[in-house]
Amino acid sequence: MYTTEIKHIGVFTSGGDSPGMNAALYAIAKTAEAKGIKVTGIRKGYEGLIDGDFTTLKSHDLQKKVQRGGTMLKTARSKRFMEPEGRNKALQTLLTNNIDALIAIGGDGTFRGLLAFSELCNLPFIGIPGTIDNDISGTDYTLGFDSAVNTAIENIDKIRDTAESHNRVFIVEVMGRDSGYIAIHSGLSTGADAILIPESGKDFIYLLDKVKGYNSEDAFLILVSEGDEIGAELVASKIREINANIDLRIARLGHVQRGGNPSAFDRVLGIRMGVEAVERILSGAKNKMVGFLNNQLNLTPFDEVIKQHQVKEELQELLKLFSK
Ligand code: F6P
Question: What residues flank ligand 1, with Cβ below 6 Å?
Answer without folding.
Answer: 16, 107, 131-133, 175-177, 226, 258
